[in-house]
TrEMBL record:
Keywords: NAD, Oxidoreductase. One of its GO terms (biological process) is fatty acid metabolic process. Pfam families: 3HCDH (PF00725), 3HCDH_N (PF02737). Gene3D superfamilies: N-(1-d-carboxylethyl)-l-norvaline Dehydrogenase, domain 2, NAD(P)-binding Rossmann-like Domain. The record marks H140 as: Important for catalytic activity. It comes from Geothermobacter ehrlichii. InterPro entries: 3-OHacyl-CoA_DH, 3-OHacyl-CoA_DH_CS, 3-OHacyl-CoA_DH_NAD-bd, 3HC_DH_C, 6-PGluconate_DH-like_C_sf, 6PGD_dom2, NAD(P)-bd_dom_sf. This is 3-hydroxybutyryl-CoA dehydrogenase. One of its GO terms (molecular function) is NAD+ binding.
Length: 284
């Protein structure tokens, strides 16, 4: 079955990026969130990025208008009845995602693949709440989606070869490079990245150095494009904590314990760039 119409669930930074890239590569995109205001805000942000592409001569005004016209807002998961593929990018919370997958399983056509952009939650568990586990898979884009080439394609225990092949091809059509990964906590990307970020937070917690100094060491010393604390703010501290919890519980190993400072900041609502405050200040 040819994929023409894709539903993206969650119009946050990741869902917005996935929707933008899918629309730019010719797919019709139903962009779903719980509140129309979140979708409108994201569409305005996407419009701004496309304006920049036009100004830089990478895209014509016509292409921009056609891309925006392919983005269809939705606040009802029942709109999944009318799509060929779903990728869920809602908040990193197993209960939230399980609820969405149960509804999607009832509403979407029985042949439709249900993918999740989860950073770390078990694909196998999401698949198990549906009656189509062979059609459930991880499609993990990196942030910011329009810039980053990688997509981790995560096979749950029951994911079929045909589902894997379809998602690999879809990622390539969207201009990305897919990498095949089996379903274990944090997959590859966040199993390797997040303990480094957590360790940088421990360096702040233990007074080893100021956040600026820690980031400077990693940027100038290791050529990372962003220091780990700037990157944590960029990802979202709530998402970083959720990923550390999955690693900690999933491996039952104390080496993955989330730093208490990370917990404290999330409890305070200091979520990084998206809330205006994290390790650095973004209020101005
Ligand atoms: C948590 C997970 O599950 C997995 C993850 O995603 S982990 C996070 C992975 N991502 C990273 O590690 C990102 C590391 N940082 C970087 O690569 C770079 O700092 C960056 C690409 C984000 C910004 O690059 P920069 O050179 O410092 O800044 P800047 O020149 O402003 O931006 C470069 C380009 O990125 C684009 N960009 C930056 N932020 C963007 C955003 N939020 N959305 C879309 N595009 C964005 C800019 O528009 C710019 O595009 P053009 O070249 O077309 O103008
Ligand atoms: N932030 C990052 O760098 C990355 C995040 N991810 C994953 O992508 C997913 C989304 O993350 P972000 O976009 O960063 O979060 P975000 O906080 O920017 O956006 C999440 C969006 O999901 C919406 N949402 C929550 N419950 C919903 C529901 N029941 N139905 C529809 N929409 C719902 C929220 O209203 C919000 O707009 C998470 O699973 C996260 O782990 C994956 C790669 C990178």
């Amino acid at each position: 079955m040819a994929i023409k119409r894709i539903m993206v669930i969650g119009a946050g930074q990741m869902g917005g990026g996935i929707a933008q890239v899918a629309a730019q590569t010719g797919f019709e995109v139903v962009l779903n969130d719980i509140d129309r205001a979140f979708i409108d805000k994201r569409l305005a942000f996407i419009g701004g990025l496309l304006d920049k592409n036009v100004a830089k001569g990478r895209m014509t005004e016509e292409d921009k208008a056609a891309t925006l016209a392919r983005l269809i807002p939705s606040t009802d998961l029942k709109d999944a009845a009318d799509v060929d593929f779903v990728v869920e990018a809602a908040t990193e919370n197993l209960a939230v995602k399980e609820k969405i997958f149960r509804i999607l399983d009832e509403v979407a056509r029985p042949d439709v693949i249900l993918a999740s952009n989860t950073s770390s939650l078990p694909i196998t568990e999401l698949a198990a709440v549906t009656g189509r586990p062979e059609l459930v898979i991880g499609m993990h884009f990196m942030n910011p989606v329009p810039v980053m080439k990688l997509v981790e394609v995560i096979r749950g225990i029951a994911t079929s070869d045909a589902t894997y092949a379809t998602v690999k091809e879809l990622a390539e059509t969207m201009g990305k490079v897919p990498v095949e990964v089996n379903d274990y906590p944090g997959f590859i990307s966040n199993r390797v990245l997040m303990p480094m970020i957590n360790e940088a937070i421990y360096c702040v917690y233990e007074g080893v150095a100021e956040p600026e100094a820690i980031d400077t060491v990693m940027k100038l010393g290791m050529n990372h494009p962003m220091g780990p604390l700037t990157l944590a703010d960029f990802i979202g501290l709530d998402t970083c904590l959720a990923i550390m919890e999955v690693l900690y519980e999933g491996f039952a190993d104390s080496k993955y314990r989330p730093c208490p400072l990370l917990r404290k900041m999330v409890k305070a609502g200091w979520l990084g760039r998206k809330s205006g405050k994290g390790f650095f200040d973004y209020s101005s």
